Amino acid sequence: MIELRQELADLHRLLVTAGLVVWTAGNVSARVPGADLLLIKPSGVPYEELTAESMVLCDLEGKPVQDGLKPSSDVFAHAYVYRQRPDVSGVVHTHSTYATAWAARGEAIPCVLTAMADEFGGEIPVGPFALIGGDDIGRGIVATLEGHRSPAVLMRSHGVFTIGGTPREAVKAAVMCEDVARTVHIARQLGTPEEIAPADVDRLYDRYQNVYGQGVR
Amino acid sequence: MIELRQELADLHRLLVTAGLVVWTAGNVSARVPGADLLLIKPSGVPYEELTAESMVLCDLEGKPVQDGLKPSSDVFAHAYVYRQRPDVSGVVHTHSTYATAWAARGEAIPCVLTAMADEFGGEIPVGPFALIGGDDIGRGIVATLEGHRSPAVLMRSHGVFTIGGTPREAVKAAVMCEDVARTVHIARQLGTPEEIAPADVDRLYDRYQNVYGQGVR
Amino acid sequence: MIELRQELADLHRLLVTAGLVVWTAGNVSARVPGADLLLIKPSGVPYEELTAESMVLCDLEGKPVQDGLKPSSDVFAHAYVYRQRPDVSGVVHTHSTYATAWAARGEAIPCVLTAMADEFGGEIPVGPFALIGGDDIGRGIVATLEGHRSPAVLMRSHGVFTIGGTPREAVKAAVMCEDVARTVHIARQLGTPEEIAPADVDRLYDRYQNVYGQGVR
Amino acid sequence: MIELRQELADLHRLLVTAGLVVWTAGNVSARVPGADLLLIKPSGVPYEELTAESMVLCDLEGKPVQDGLKPSSDVFAHAYVYRQRPDVSGVVHTHSTYATAWAARGEAIPCVLTAMADEFGGEIPVGPFALIGGDDIGRGIVATLEGHRSPAVLMRSHGVFTIGGTPREAVKAAVMCEDVARTVHIARQLGTPEEIAPADVDRLYDRYQNVYGQGVR
């Protein structure tokens, strides 16, 4: 557990380095292997004060199971995703600038870059407007991602949620999502970038998911 | 007093880290608890040279009460706010890029993001054009903020002022103001983001002000 | 060889510092002097873990010639360039934001800045859309650069490739390409910058290539 | 002389920190007090290798007066300015992104911000297109600045030159020029910012030049 706590603290620092978060906004969570539990960022604590110990242990309803700091107020969305998606062990939420700008317009990011085909296997979709505090956001995330290969979803008027088989993969999806959101925005400012043909998207996605990288490390 | 001086020097460094200021522009002030006094950045001193000792002690008319460095030339605006608003103990002024761009057009930032509803409880309003050196800027700040929940005001053709119950809260408002100014600008470049319904803004604002964070720390 | 390995690892870090890459995207390769071999970044390894030892030695068909890490999946494009262009000893590939935005629209960057005339001797051209994994990308790079003085080519819907007489020169071209891609994009947002007359482009290019700098260092 | 050399090396590092330069582009020079000499950056040397010793001593025709590194190829423009303007003791040249974008369109930056009135006393003007290597660029700088209070001039299709009573003041002007170039660009993307009335520009300029700061330090 201590290793997972430390990894989670380190991944939060990665959000800062990548420029995805300001002040105390944004959070990463991890499913605890072999238990109906998750770890998540405490609410409203500055990134530079986060430690392995400050990560908050909760059940899969989002309720803390130990005394101490309160969990992120986004915990209910994370918990819902873990309940519905046993394949997911990491969830990230940010208000990263360009992705959130697409979300504010309620517009999906079209697949116009090979890097998007690689990582997202198509467009990055838009989920519904939903209020914080119950299952509404989680429901919107899960329902929207069902019809897509994308591990990222733009929640309308709000920000981005990403999922992964590990917390690190979810962070990678958050970083890549902001990167393509920015590049496609800038491309669109002076014209209309062409979409990649669906068959080519399939080939790129398949290759990247199966050939890229060093295999299990 | 030395702790407050040190905190103020540290908060100035936060403005630099957050990318809100260049060269010697921008300043933070703090009300001295239990006295009709304030501390503020000295005029024209580079951020990397600021120390606890270099913060300038002034009365609430903006007049320095000790020999030494001259206060920021914005001191009269800060002093006016402290005189009129006993609930305010921190004031920040910056020319942060995106917020100042909205100010240059004299346009309020509409509430199209849940993060804006959380922190600002609605739009970020625009105050009048006013010249430096007397009470005009302070008057513009106080009058404009009266009709809003926002702790930030865009002063026309000039920049941003933010207020807070503590200096740190005022800095937070300055950071969040630039963040949403940037995101809403970028959203607007390619379309018109939808405003959040007033009842939802109220719910989000209420929750964020009362439920978010760890309570008094 | 160990010096070349170390230089290559250091040049990868330069891509990060210059803001041209995120996560594990992007790569630099170097021709091994006096041998039909190249060194290249391993596939999917984070930049902060790269060392001289982790650079992968391959033949000029892109096949690794030692046990260990797998090479970047872009190795075939690099290898093709080295086979066809004996004058090239360094190749860089990135998805840097502004250059990739021009690539997404399939639009060449017009020569409207003296800095572009200096380094690129004219426009930065666009190459074809090509899938990864064989010689298609390499063929597109070599064919497109044939008619231009530019050491950079924008590969449609994909990103940038740059070449150089040394790996460092190729990295320089990648840095300058993103810089002018950004500046010309921003100039174009509010009007149409004038192109530099071809005769002046020739004069600037000639002077920069022959007079600038300290000669061989 | 060694103090001036060290100050010049440090000011070059400030250009990097402020994000005004990439690779080896950009340079700062200083008039040597009481002599017809200047110090300037060597040509094509990376910023991280610059030392007090590597600064190149030249006469006011731009000719090096010691063996060693070649001066920046922009030395003739700097030298011309020192010959014509005895009040100037520092000159800076950059291709900073937003200022250069205005220069590429050949458009002056209108005075729509109080910070511009403070530092530039009006618009930032555009100078002619001129080729490097003789007096043409210097002549364009001096002629354009004659009719303006601005210490910065946008050279068409090229970049920015700034002047100052000290090298540090010229660097300040370069930093402020990029800052207002960026803010006004962004303001203009979504509308037309109002210009500040000339009488108010005069009041702001006068106050900033005479009241701001700590006096001679």
From TrEMBL, chains A, B, C, D:
Keywords: Metal-binding, Zinc
InterPro entries: Aldolase_class_II_sugar_metab (IPR050197), Aldolase_II/adducin_N (IPR001303), Aldolase_II/adducin_N_sf (IPR036409)
Zinc is among the record's keywords: yes
Record-annotated Class II aldolase/adducin N-terminal domain positions: 6-185
Pfam families per record: Aldolase_II (PF00596)
GO terms of biological process kind: pentose catabolic process
Signal peptide coordinates: none
SMART domains assigned to the protein according to its UniProt record, in alphabetical order: Aldolase_II (SM01007)
Zinc found in the keyword field: yes
Cofactor: Zn(2+)
GO molecular function: aldehyde-lyase activity; L-ribulose-phosphate 4-epimerase activity; metal ion binding
Any one annotated GO CC term: cytosol
EC numbers on record: 5.1.3.4
Catalytic reaction equation(s): L-ribulose 5-phosphate = D-xylulose 5-phosphate
Family per record: Belongs to the aldolase class II family. AraD/FucA subfamily.
Protein name listed in UniProt: L-ribulose-5-phosphate 4-epimerase
Source organism of this protein record: Acrocarpospora macrocephala
Organism phylogeny: Bacteria, Bacillati, Actinomycetota, Actinomycetes, Streptosporangiales
